[in-house]
Amino acid sequence: MNQPIPCPTKIEINEVAPRDGLQIEARFVPTEEKIRWIDALSTTGLRRIEATSFTSPKAIPNLRDAADVVTGIQRRGGMDITVLVPNVKGTERALACQVDEINLVMSASNSHGLANLRMTPEQSLEQFAAILEVTQGSGVFINASLSTTFGCPFEGEVPEVRVLELVEKLVALGIQGVTLCDTTGMANPAQVKRLCKAALERWPETPFTLHFHNTRGMGLANALAAWEAGISRFDASLGGLGGCPFAPGASGNVCTEDLVHMFEAMGVDTGVDLDALLEVAATLPDLIGHDVPGQVVKAGKSTRRYAMPAQRTT
Amino acid sequence: MNQPIPCPTKIEINEVAPRDGLQIEARFVPTEEKIRWIDALSTTGLRRIEATSFTSPKAIPNLRDAADVVTGIQRRGGMDITVLVPNVKGTERALACQVDEINLVMSASNSHGLANLRMTPEQSLEQFAAILEVTQGSGVFINASLSTTFGCPFEGEVPEVRVLELVEKLVALGIQGVTLCDTTGMANPAQVKRLCKAALERWPETPFTLHFHNTRGMGLANALAAWEAGISRFDASLGGLGGCPFAPGASGNVCTEDLVHMFEAMGVDTGVDLDALLEVAATLPDLIGHDVPGQVVKAGKSTRRYAMPAQRTT
């Protein structure tokens, strides 16, 4: 057994709200508003923004302006733009827009893969191989997101050995980074710690990102457990935007500003200017037309001070 | 340095919603409804319920029926009834109702003590001494809740050395159990782990309970950190009922069913029948007239399975 990996002193956030958040919104956010929003986000010190998805406009109408968004936003040094692509065609469109990173997606469970992507994991891997031929020599970082890593809403538990087998295949294929996704908020901290330790021990050179949902309130607890296992990269969504079509009323993705707030309070460097991020988060309800689950934007940071109430005289 | 305390395999929940939750509600819940609710809660395997507060009816009108509630509920074996008392008079009223436990409350910070109780910590300790004279020989367990342990909304940080000094005084006074309260949701997991470890190392025989709020989304992460430090007793509030008058719109106490769900998913025995608890939690909106922050009641347990969606043909 190796020495335990120390808790990282720095973490990196990949902001996924423009893609994972907007895709399920009822309202199409106009392209100029998306661009203004992403430009505001990109001044806050986030390491990476998943700006959109190069999907069929029929499949995800909210992101039908993918190319306009990516070519319209300001590209600031130190922050990468990543985009989700579902296939070779999407990859070609993304490469034409000079993205820094491409995020592929597959499911760890057969039934979720079939329901969500109409592909088994093995079919997804074949497609990834075709995509990697297209990206070869582009210098673009290729990440793969593995959905339902901590459980499938149709099948239940996805055996850890199956998850690790799929990671092995992704790494062998030439995928550079792997995101372990708790797609519908089924993970618990003990499970997270176990799988993260196993992955980091086996592939110490592979950047692993953890993607949590707060569907059952465990988003930050799971992020804490992952960090304790040595994970230093997290997906998060401003305001906790996003969600799970199976759990109406439940929380969505883990909330970026709440995650940054927790880690910064713990003395972990996120690289993010939390005050600037909270300012952008406060504009979300106007942008999307409804309240969001984020807590810190409502309560203020834990360093917030209040005036003493006036003494009651009776 | 001692060996690290292992993570407990069993934890105990003290359900505080009937007291900490109801006290700030806009509506007075009729006595019979309170009794029916607590009776339902007491069948779920909870170890302890904080049923009410023997306070002045003027100070907390919602709990003006304290004696009727305590004498009206069914007392089941294996579950203790605890009540909050603010002074000697309340203690006498509580003892007359044959409670199992009395919970005293004081603040770790001067300004919160003055604002909330009109007492400095030292004045509270004097009053506790007077209360302990009254309870002597009663066989009733005496617990003290220490507010603002992890920060004060007026003063900010409360030095750990000050918290430990107050715990020392409580233990020396003859207080049997101590609850460390994150009254306004300022704690972070690193701080929680540090203070819990220090307290457990110094007073290994004292039962420490941790009381968290989810004001900034960290409730379950803080509970996880406390458990990792060796804590096995938690306050929690059904539905996440309760809150902080300074953060309107923010979440309240850590939610009982979400806490039980997390620990049970991790394989930690809470003694609680989660399905039964969720049934009671589902009745909360009717009882109090509004939605509550609890997540698992909306999303279902992580073991919940869904039918595969029908295959789209286009």
TrEMBL record, chains A, B:
<dbReference type="GO" id="GO:0046951">
    <property type="term" value="P:ketone body biosynthetic process"/>
</dbReference>
<dbReference type="Pfam" id="PF00682">
    <property type="entry name" value="HMGL-like"/>
</dbReference>
<dbReference type="GO" id="GO:0046872">
    <property type="term" value="F:metal ion binding"/>
</dbReference>
<keyword id="KW-0479">Metal-binding</keyword>
<dbReference type="InterPro" id="IPR000891">
    <property type="entry name" value="PYR_CT"/>
</dbReference>
<keyword id="KW-0456">Lyase</keyword>
<dbReference type="GO" id="GO:0006552">
    <property type="term" value="P:L-leucine catabolic process"/>
</dbReference>
<protein>
    <submittedName>
        <fullName>Hydroxymethylglutaryl-CoA lyase</fullName>
    </submittedName>
</protein>
<dbReference type="GO" id="GO:0004419">
    <property type="term" value="F:hydroxymethylglutaryl-CoA lyase activity"/>
</dbReference>
<dbReference type="InterPro" id="IPR043594">
    <property type="entry name" value="HMGL"/>
</dbReference>
<feature type="domain" description="Pyruvate carboxyltransferase">
    <location>
        <begin position="11"/>
        <end position="278"/>
    </location>
</feature>
<dbReference type="InterPro" id="IPR013785">
    <property type="entry name" value="Aldolase_TIM"/>
</dbReference>
<comment type="similarity">
    <text>Belongs to the HMG-CoA lyase family.</text>
</comment>
